[in-house]
Specification:
Helix content: 40-55%
Radius of gyration: 26 Å
Oligomer: single chain
Number of domains: 2
Number of strands: 3
Distance between the termini: 80 Å
Order of helices and strands: HEEHHHEHHH
Shape: elongated
Length: about 150
């Protein structure tokens, strides 16, 4: 398989073609219909979901924003703030997916948990304050051991 054939194969896989639907070209220079550069048709899976790259005008459905707020406690501002990064990544890759709304929802949940985790690890105390902290010694725990 030449480099060009391999690139064509990868482009077709990213566009949603299944491996067994992609046949190698029989004649050098002859292009298989799946690899044609003409208008690409969007493939459909058996359940009717469309496999397509992220649309340029993608925006989260308000139902998903409301769902994230009600069930995960994620503010709508945070959800919408994740949109530029999400679009930048997926438009650049050109990868085809079936459920972009769900993919965005999962991205927001991941970023929210990551932010919460990072916020929990940070504190407003300096390293010197942390190292010289003796508040643990003020506990009554030591007094209970002496008794």
């Amino acid at each position: 398989m030449t480099d060009e054939d391999q690139k064509r194969y990868i482009r077709r896989r990213n566009a949603g073609a299944l491996p067994w639907e992609i046949e190698p070209t029989e004649q050098p220079g002859a292009e298989h219909p799946i690899f044609s550069q003409e208008e690409q048709t969007v493939s459909h899976s058996s359940n009717g979901a469309r496999v397509q790259p992220l649309p340029e005008d993608f925006a989260p459905d308000p139902v998903y924003v409301e769902f994230l707020e009600q069930h995960h406690g994620i503010p709508g501002e945070f959800t919408l703030g994740q949109l530029p990064e999400f679009k930048l990544y997926w438009l650049e890759t050109g990868e085809a997916r079936k459920a972009w709304q769900n993919k965005f929802k999962n991205h927001v949940i991941y970023q929210w948990k990551r932010k919460q985790s990072e916020a929990g690890q940070r504190s407003n105390r300096t390293t010197a304050e942390k190292l010289t902290d003796t508040s643990w010694a003020d506990d009554d725990w030591f007094e209970q051991l002496d008794e």
